[in-house]
Amino acid sequence: MRRFLTLLVTLVVFGASASLAQTRQVSGKVVGADDNLPLPGVNVLVKEAPTVGTTTDANGNYTIKNVPSNGKTLIFRFVGFQVLEMPITGTQINASLKSESKQIEEVMVVAYGTAKKSTFTGSAAAVSEKQLTKIQASDPTKALEGALAGVSVISASGQPGQSTQIRIRGIGSINSSNEPLIIVDGAPYDGNLNSISSNDIESLNVLKDAASAALYGARGANGVIIVTTKKGKSGATSVSFNGKVGYNFRGVQEYDIMKDPKQYYEMFWEGLYNKGVYTDKLNDADARNYASNNLYSILGYNSYDVANNQIVLPNGQLNPNAKIRYKYADWNNWGKELYDPQLRQDYNLTITKGTDKSKIYFSAGYLDDKGYNQNSYFERYSSRISYDTEIFSWLNFGASTNFSRTESNWTQDGSSYTNTFSWTRSIAPIYPIYLTDANGNMVLDLNGKPMYDFGEAVTGLNGGRAYGAKTNPVATQNEDINNYLDYYINQNAFATFKLPYNISFTTNASIYGNWATSNDYTTPIGGSGLTYNGISTKYKAQTITYNFNQILKWEQKFDDLTVQLMAGHETYKKNYDIIYGSKSNFLDPENNEWANAAKVSSLTSYAREYLLEGYFGQTTFDYQNKYYLSASLRRDGSSIFHKDNRWGTFWSIGSSWRISEEEFIKGIEFINNLKLKASYGAQGNDYLYLANSTSRSYTPYNTLYEVTSNGTDLGLSPKYLGNKSVTWEKNMNLNVGLEFGLFAGKISGEFEYFNKKTDDLLFNLPVPVSTGFTSIPTNIGSMKNEGFEVSLSSNLISNDLLKLSVNANLTHYKNEVTKLPDEFKTSGITRSGDQIIKEGGSIYDFYMVKWAGVDPQNGDALYWIKNATTGQYEKSTNYDASSRQKIGTAIPDATGGFGTTLEIMNFDLSLQFAYQIGGLFNDSQYNNLMHGGDAGDNWHTDIYNRWTPSNTNTGVPRVEYNNQQLTQSSDRFITDASYLSFKNLTLGYNIPANILKKANIKNLRVFFVADNVYLFSKRKGMDPRVSFSGVATTAVYSPIRTVSFGLTLNL
Amino acid sequence: MKIKILAGIAAVTLFGSCSGDFLDADVNEYLTKNRKEELVKTSPKSIALLVNGSLDGVYNLMIDNGLNGNTSHDYFGLKSIQLATDLTGEDVVQDVHHHFGFDYNVDNRSATYRRTRLMWALFYKMVSSSNSILDDYFAVETTDKDLLALKSQALAIRGIAYYHLVNLYQQTYKGNEDKWGVPLVLKPTDDKKPRAKVSEVYKQITSDLRFAVENGAITSTKKDADKLVAAAYLAKAYAQMEKWDSVEVYSKIAINGATLMSQATYENDFVSISNPEWLWGNDINGETTSLYASFYSHADNTIDGYASLGVTKSIHNKLYEKVNNTDVRKKLFVDNVLFPSIAAKYSKLKNYVGLKYKSPADFTGDYCYIRVADPYLLLAEAQVEQNKLAEAKATLESLIATRQTGYSAAAFDSQDALRQEIRLQRRIELWCEGSMFFDFKRWKIGIVRNVAGTNHRTKIDVPAGDKRWVYQIPQGEIDANPNIQEQNP
User: Fold this and answer.
1) Residue B21 CB: number of other CB atoms within 10 A?
2) How far is Cα A76 from Cα A601, in angstroms, rounded to an integer?
3) pTM for the whole thing?
4) Cα dihedral B111, B116, B121, B124 sign
5) Cα dihedral across residues A935, A938, A940, A941: positive or negative
6) Can you tell me the mean pLDDT for A867-887?
7) Do residues A790 and A750 lie in contact, with contact meaning Cβ atoms separated by under 8 Å?
8) CB < 8 Å to B192, chain A
9) Chain A contact for B60 (CB, 8 A cutoff)
10) Is A709 touching B (CB cutoff 8 A)?
11) Residues whose CB falls within 8 Å of the CB of residue A202, separated by 6 or more in sequence, listed in order
């Protein structure tokens, strides 16, 4: 309103004086170029007489009655649209304004600000809002999977709510974190990203090199991901609604496992027979009888209606008279009971409104993500409000508040019998789910509900299940609770002061709070909680982080040179505290509160603190829009280190050259953009892990003692050996890149070479266990990650009818440990059981005894064993772990992704893929399924190819009950980890505008979307995507495939 | 303009650094070494709290299953090592292959395996904890009796740890005196020590334990490695050395006029720390139990732990047959012929399954590391080896008669016959209590499982002196300690 008044005053005062001169009248209509709809409120001014002008009315019409005689040009200005100048060629001047976003040069979010993409000297890449909202994942960073060169993303399991793990350009550290720094709206973010709805995110920017990330000196060594949330937009009020409803299915199929009890009993019989022959040295007939007679007592269950010692006859065949004694269907189909597609719903509402001075953004979202595994879910309520305003011409202020509540229930993983994925994979198909009477019918309880079979012995019926006795996950899965309830508030505020001499001062303050409640309850009705009559472990934890920074900026143009200077100071503080306890012996199995329990088994509380302070500065030079130079410096002090070694200096220099702006290139028609850039710099890492742990070491300079308790007396134990001299891990990062755009956008892309060298690795140096400690933190050793990445995209076809674009990216790098402490130079450091870190090798090199096949004579497993006298490797049955040899690395030759988008008329289709080529994966799940004869454990159907006297030429040794020799750890199950993942398919239809117009709807799109559509890997069931290191020892929640229908509505 | 200037000034002041110690993070999850050193100086009361706390820290460590980040359920401190070594022998049968299955197959000794790694880690953690206690609180010689008694506990712990180490990582003393034992780490600053000779390790063991016997007190709580515990282990060490006169001296001190338990206690209440025969152990309660990863989960066949999941632990039937039918110890195993009413009570258990360990259902049976029957039988052995046959018989009878009313050793009239009887009684008495692996080694007798009619599942024989009696030094130690002269075969 004020604007109108000002304009009115202007018109009255100046218009009056202008009217003295000779004037003429001009009128016309202003429309938007996109939709040809009239634009009201557009400022129309005479260029040569800027005081003369008007605004368009509600129908986009304007009239300027007093255009002076020197007025030759009209200027049309409207918020959100490009300024248009038109010569006054008559009395009727109609204008069509193009929206601003299409014209403005691409701007990217970088450290402490934004930069024009063309001038940027560093290496960064972004995932846009459009890509983000396609992916149906609770963690928005899932959208990075396969999307950007140099960025690897995995999820350790398919559990709803599971966070991702991200690696940018290789693995930089051994004992410190390899996770990138996450910055949300300018402040380091320590929480779960699943608290933020993808719908609220404008972009995810990944900073990969020193020039882009060194300003975050302290923590930038692993790269930086900048999450920018959406802000209000100027222009008319916009309301948009986005909803998706679909189902979650199992995304990766089970291995080919045995399903028929007949096959299992016969195979197990053979294992017993072979034990008789090969270990107990029985004669053939005795071994056959031994196997038939002991089959039941070892397995515990007889699924057939024949005598226990006649299930499999001494001829090795199932008794021809045997019939399944269970009188109900799917009696052994545990997966059918446990896994069921579940509903997924995701709704988001967004409202934005604004003028060029004040903008507001509001959103609310709801996500209900139920896993297909019983009792697993993730649910989120989120809302966000953001407000930016110009208070005075010299002061801008903005604030945003994000609130969310997430609740999830996790099912057990790890090696316990309550891990359903382990259970359904590994239990032999001979054990029933429900308790069964002598007639083979289900036993019902007094409420008429079927009772579960916990595998306990029932006289005259069963012996006790050889697999997971006293456990039945179908019965306990819904009773066991592993619940996490989190509240998040993230509050950001900033103020920008415009000071004289082109100086601006900005201060940002952020407070993030997370209040977490965990409730882990093991039901007393069966399973592992039975013995102690239920146990409940709960904690309440609070994380509060404060980030406060002050930034001065100055920008000045001198003819061809533009100089920017920035100086800043930042403090960060994180406080975490927790109260944790557990109680057992519950009265009512359905009440998991401690008020319902008797026995305290643990109770503790403590707090942790992390503090960081940094000073930083940056300068950039832009000469003739062709040559760019940037330099940054940051000095950080971290509470992680002793005060004598606390401060580190990090820096970068970068330069770029827009070759395409040079005269000698400008003449070359097909080159639209060509830019060469290079950067080098140092970044740091202070995120050291406690030895043997995934917890952070907060004061590694302290030697620590732990108070333990035996219930009454306090005990004091040495816990951690500290080292005062431990300090920053340093990462020297070289980046050279070439950006290009050819044939008018038909091909554009980027090629980059990088060489990241980490020195002074934060290292938990093993000390002899005979000292009583396992390690001491030190800065020792070096590692490098060298490689290249390529991104290509093409708008193959782009016309009014059809648009087809494709994109692809590839990253190749080599990880090499270049220096280790002297004492490990030859022996290396054991990373896990099967991986050793050695100088010259990679961090994920497998060292295992090599598999030498099967002895055709007797089916023995053969290994390549070093002969102590000759030093030669020989085929032998005498397994010896010291004969380990290098097998290869888990690090792939190449990773990346590709995708395509097709738009035909109102339809759009997009496909996205992620892939990995090479790398090794230890398929321990397959290994477990190829056991020699573990009672009650199921087999992979590949076991049909085991050695028998009639099948001697095979790679599978004979089956033999309880013979460790046949299944010693070797590279037999090391598998090529190459995969192709069909990540996302989206098919959409935009309802034509002319239909919507009548309903006053700007835009309505309906779509079908499927995530995790299919995985192609070397073996059905094997999912190498769960681990960077190629090692995954336990069965994990198999990833979810989500298939949904959705709509997006804009009012 | 004024406002702009003010804003500028405000901006510059905001840049000011935080105060100097802003970056010192609080630590309250653990006690830092600096703070500990301050506490030592505050008051005698806090010293006593720290010394006692440090000793209790070791005792807690010995029942903890989380050593060095371990999460596997087959490690729970000293009792897991005792169970593992018992299963690596002749007298205990594991009925189904599961946790401890490779111990039972006498195949869990390689350098990269968890068992040898955690054994080594536990005993060296005991050693280093003792070294820290000695260094932190006893660097200055003292004559204060109470302080000496506390110092004695630290030395006893160290001696006991080395007793286990040298016997797990090398053959027995006698005949192997000059072989490489284990590194002797005696000060917190000792680092990367080479393996010391077996004889040197024994010298340290006997010196530590002798100090503990001479200066130690008999404490009221059985969790303490007190004078009696030190004497009992010293007797065990001397038995390995076959120094029978010393065995006699120290086993007598350990026995200390002990009250032996009644047959009723033996049969039904063996697992409580109030058992009068227990010398050293720990009270397991709701707070200290490691639940499924606990001794009773694996050794108690009557409650819902791993053992009752089918992984029952039985007595070798050939040993069981040698137990007299009137002996209360015969009732410690399922026998549906002799004791049908007991067998009926445990109808799901097969014959020979052990009933010695019957703990409360929530795994809170207490842990016993050593009880008086051990030095008792060592005394008898020392006497028979010194050819004091009458005394040996008297000692044996005074113990066994409490198990088997009217027991007499009269029939064993030669030294060897009596020796065999004492050994047999030792095997029966200490069945599955963690001693037999070490006793077989010093007796130099092999494991004989492959006999007709055996209930053993893995029917292998292991001759005395075989490499399988010795664990390989963990790979981690070999990797980190270049001074280890050689790995065990």
Assistant:
1) 9
2) 75
3) 0.83
4) negative
5) positive
6) 88
7) yes
8) 768
9) yes
10) yes
11) A129, A228, A229, A230, A231
